[in-house]
Write a structure and sequence with these properties.
Layout lengths: L2 H22 L2 E5 L5 H9 L6 E4 L11 H16 L22 E9 L2 E2 L1 H10 L7 E8 L5 H10 L4 E2 L4 E4 L6 H11 L2 H5 L15 E3 L13 E4 L2 E4 L1
Parallel strand pairs: 1-2, 1-3, 3-5, 5-6, 5-7
Antiparallel strand pairs: 3-4, 8-9, 9-10
Length: 238
Amino acid sequence: MTIAMKKLLFLVCAMLTLLCTSATAKTLVVYYSYTNYCREIVTTLTSQIQADVLEIQPAEKGLKYEANGYALGTQLLNAIKANPNNAGSYPVIDPVTTSVGDYQTIIIVTPLWWSQMAANMQTYLFNNGSRMAGMNVGLIVSSASSGISGVVNDCKRLVPDGNYFSENLWINHSNHSNRATLIRNWLTAINYHTVTGISESKTTAATAPTRIYDLGGRLVVGESSKGIYVKNGKKLIK
């Protein structure tokens, strides 16, 4: 084999390795949102990391799980608890075409329903949890005020062989408005980029470089003199 052919073979192997690494290093954010809190969490999360998003939807639309003293929601959860190994115990959700096998990291964002994981998210994990064996698994839970231990237990029952991050993230209604900081701190605490092998991150307001322009639209370099400027999209008077 000539030196040129060896170099070509080396480059092809390197490219294949890179392609395989980038494919397995992808993150999928799976969420269910009933009151829109989880949807807002996902929007904030995906402004800080690169990820695909899958929303879980119930097959029957317009249901009021909290009506009549939470009768329907309680009924769904009790059916699961009575026979958690039976697919018929779980509410039907819309078909899902996204394959978890295309990802190495799964982040689950779910509401808490009366100390348990929302029934519709449990359906998705019952159907797909076994396929997440060995994958990195993160859990973000939204609740009014209740602790999330019951949701954590449900997740580990449904995804027993996941490689869970060192911490789960709980965002309750009182600190929901501070979710950007909570998510950023969580990603740091779990060492997200190192554990997942994903080095890229999105620029957020907290990490964006400072840019100052004069009123003519020209970038100001160095110390600006007194006057009116635009700094990161906001008026600045010096």
